[in-house]
């Protein structure tokens, strides 16, 4: 994982706050409809483009609910990093399949670093892919069991979808199962991303 990915995920763990639908509505005010031109909640001093897409507010709840994630239990976090910014949202899929999986944990981060920077940091685990015709990366690190990441290029930088597969048995899932269904979720979110 790249330096900002490590810092951003650590920040998610450290500063995540619960975001009920009513709290999200109050925080977003009139901006609860999907918009890719909102005023950023936070900015940094880097000179990089502002992060104008907020995963907790700009991905429709029905898209996440349809994918098996309870959007009513999403959690939001602000991560100004000084030289770059990430807006994050975490989701859980608690659809248990006994003996197979207990569900998934999903972090979605919108950041103002470029896809090329991300590739440079993670070239050893990254494969160039396309999400609905948009440049993207698939990152699978065999040293990070049960974890799969798609990184999609946006107008301000990138969107990272990092999912952890929670097995319902001791040990890790087969590596071929780590990414099952995540590309479909990335494809369903992509139309909402700014170009």
Backbone CA Rg? 16 Å
Number of strands: 8
What structural category do the secondary elements indicate? Answer: alpha+beta
Q: Outline the low-pLDDT stretches.
A: 7-36
* Helix share bin: 10-25%
Instruction: State the helix count.
Output: 6
Biggest sheet: strand arrangement: 1-2-3-4-8-7-6-5
The ordered H/E elements are HEHHHEEEHEEEEH
Main sheet, how many strands, which sense, barrel? 8 strands, antiparallel
Shape: globular
Distance between termini?
Answer: 25 Å
Mean pLDDT: 83
How much of the sequence lies in strands comes to 25-35%
State the main characteristics:
8 strands; single chain; 6 helices; 195 residues; 8-stranded antiparallel beta sheet; alpha+beta
Question: What layout of secondary structure does this protein have?
Answer:
Elements: H1 3-15, E1 17-18, H2 21-28, H3 55-58, H4 61-66, E2 75-80, E3 85-93, E4 101-111, H5 115-122, E5 126-131, E6 134-139, E7 147-153, E8 158-167, H6 182-189
Antiparallel strand pairs: 1-2, 2-3, 3-4, 4-8, 5-6, 6-7, 7-8
């Amino acid at each position: 994982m790249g330096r900002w990915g490590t810092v951003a995920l650590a920040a998610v763990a450290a500063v995540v706050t619960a975001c009920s639908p009513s709290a999200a509505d109050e925080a977003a005010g009139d901006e609860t409809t999907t918009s890719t031109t909102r005023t950023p909640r936070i900015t940094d001093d880097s000179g990089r483009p502002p992060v104008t897409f907020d995963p907790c507010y700009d991905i429709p709840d029905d898209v996440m609910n349809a994918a098996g994630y309870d959007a009513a239990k999403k959690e939001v976090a602000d991560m100004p990093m000084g030289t770059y910014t990430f807006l994050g949202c975490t989701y859980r899929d608690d659809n248990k399949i006994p003996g197979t999986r207990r569900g998934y944990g999903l972090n979605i981060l919108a950041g103002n670093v470029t896809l090329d920077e991300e590739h440079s940091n993670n070239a050893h685990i990254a494969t160039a892919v396309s999400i609905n015709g948009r440049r993207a990366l698939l990152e699978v690190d065999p040293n990070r069991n049960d974890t799969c990441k798609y990184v999609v290029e946006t107008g301000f930088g990138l969107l990272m979808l990092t999912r952890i597969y929670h097995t319902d048995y001791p040990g890790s899932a087969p590596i071929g199962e780590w990414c099952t269904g995540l590309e479909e979720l990335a494809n369903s979110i992509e139309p909402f991303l700014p170009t």
